[in-house]
Amino acid sequence: MSGSPSAPAVGPATDEAGYPSPFVAWTMVAVLFLAYILSFIDRMIIGLLVEPLKADLDLTDTQVSLLQGFAFAIFYTVMGLPLGRLIDRSARLPIVAAGVGLWSLMTAACGLAGQYWQLFVARMGVGVGEATLSPAAYSIISDTFPQKRLGLAMGVYGLGSAVGAGLAFLIGAFIIELVASTGSVVLPMVGEVRAWQATFLIVGLPGLLVAGLFLLLPEPMRQGAAGQPADQVQVPISSVLDFARRRAGAVMGLCFAVAMVNFAVFAAVSWFPVFLIRVHGFTLTQAGHLAGAALIVGGLIGLVGGGWVTDRFGGGTPAGRLAFCGYAGMVGTVFAVIFPLVGNPLVAAAAFVVFFASAAVPIGAAASALQQLTPNRMRATFSAIYLFIVNLIGLGAGPTATALVGDTFFPFDTGIRYAITVVSPISFAVAAGLFLMSAAYARRPMAV
C-alpha cells in the first residue's frame, strides 16, 4: 500500500496495527457524537418554532420551510466542498473546533433577529459552521476504527442526528413552556425577548464549550499515510474526479440514494410537530415531547441496531451495507404512508418510529460504505461531495416540498398530513431502488 500522492491507499488497514486504543477511539467518537447532537439541535429547533414564528413575523409555511431547509443548506452544501479538500490536507480537529464555535454563535444570532431577512442570514451562517463537522468526522472515525467495527462506530456518531433532533423538540418545548409560565424573558445586554428568540440563544451558546474539547484531543494518524505530514500527501482533484468516474455506479448511486432518504425524512420530520398540533390537537409542548421521544427511539433502533447489523450483513462489505439500506427503504416507504393517515396519535407516533428507524439506517451504513469504497486521502473530499448532494436535495428541498404541496393542493390546517403522505413515500421508494442499484455496482470490479 503506497503512501505516494500518485497511489493513495484504497481502503483501511485490515488489522488493528496503528489504530488508537479503544479508549481513545471511543472518546473521539463520544466528542464527535456530542458535537453532532448540538449540530442537530441547532439545525432542527426551528421545526418546533413554526407556529410562533408565523405569528410574530407574519410568515407562510413556505417561508418558514426556507428557513428550515434552503437558508441552512445553501452554504452548508457549497462550503462543504472546499472544506472537504482542506480537511484531506490538514489537521482535522482544529477545523472542527472552529466550525462548532461558528455555528453556535450563529444559532445564538438567530435569537437576536427581529425580521425575516435577519433570521435567514443567521441560518445561512449556521450552515457554514456545520459544514465542517461530518466530512472531518467520517475521515477521523475511519482512521480510528478497523473495518470490522466501522459500522457500529459510524452508527453511534450518526445517532447524534436523531438524539439532537429529538432533543431540539424536547428542549424547545421545555424552554417555551418555561417562558410561557413566567410571561417573558429578560437577558443581560439583550433585554426582553420572545420565547422563540430565547430558545435560539439558550441552545446555541453551549456549543462554544464543546468546540474547546476538540483542541484537547490527539489528531489520529491517517491509515496508509504513516510518517508523512498531512500537507505533503495531497491528491490532485483530477485523481478524485477520475476515481468518481470509475466508481460512479456505486459511489454516486449511494449519494443520490441517501439524498432521497433525506428528502423523505426532512419532508416529514420538519413538519412532524406541526402535524401533531394541527391534525391531532396537541399543544406545542405536547408535540415537542412526543416528537422528540419518537425521534430518539427511532434513531436508537436504526443507527445503533442498524450499524451493528450492517457490520455483519453480507460480511460488512460495501455491497452488503447498501443492500441492507435498500431493504430498510422498502419498510420505510410503507410506514411513510401509514403514520400521517392513521387516526390515533399514539399509533401515528409508533408508525413514525418505524419510519424514522428505517431512514436512520443509511446514516451509519451508507457513510461506512462510502469510506470503504474511497481511498484515504480522498475520503473527506468524497464525504463533502456526498453531503453536498444529500443535503442540497434532502435538507434543501425536503421541507419546502411538503410546504409547497400543502399550500398548493391542501390549503387547510389538516392538509399537512396529506402533503407528507404525497412527498415522503415517493422519495423513500426511489431511495430503496437506488440503494439496490448501488449495491449491485459495488460488487463489480472498478471500471478502468
Automatic annotation (TrEMBL):
Xref: PROSITE patterns: MFS (PS50850)
A Gene Ontology molecular function term of the record: transmembrane transporter activity
Membrane topology per record: Multi-pass membrane protein
SUPFAM superfamilies the record matches: MFS general substrate transporter (SSF103473)
Name used for this protein in its record: MFS transporter
InterPro entries according to UniProt: MFS, MFS_dom, MFS_spinster-like, MFS_trans_sf
Localization, UniProt: Membrane
Membrane-crossing segments per the record: 23-46, 66-83, 95-114, 120-140, 152-176, 196-217, 251-277, 289-310, 322-342, 348-370, 382-406, 418-442
Record-annotated Major facilitator superfamily (MFS) profile domain positions: 28-448
Any single Pfam family the record assigns to this protein: MFS_1
Record key words, sorted: Membrane, Transmembrane, Transmembrane helix, Transport
GO CC aspect terms: membrane
